[in-house]
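Appendix B, example 12.
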Amino acid sequence: MSSMAAALAAAKREEQMSVTHFDTARKYVRLSQYRADGLVEFEFAVGEPELYVELVLPRPAFADFCLAHQVILLEPKEPEAGPVPDWDWRMQQASREGLRKR
């Protein structure tokens, strides 16, 4: 491998490492809904707000959860316009509408 190719490969590895830095200390919560039964539906993410899990907790446990994880609260999502593809559903939708049978 030439010195130029080695330098380019090293630069590419450095770029990939800086782009893929994942900060596990940053934790995010996006509230989905306060339910009438006292439960809170929300999204929880570690490192990147786009990679999340949907969770449901009682209100007191939700508050404790947020404090324990020192979360960053995110703004609610805007409703998506147009039809949602069959494979792109949320727990909240499935619990209300049920899963469509194919």
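The longest strand covers residues 27-34. The radius of gyration is 20 Å.
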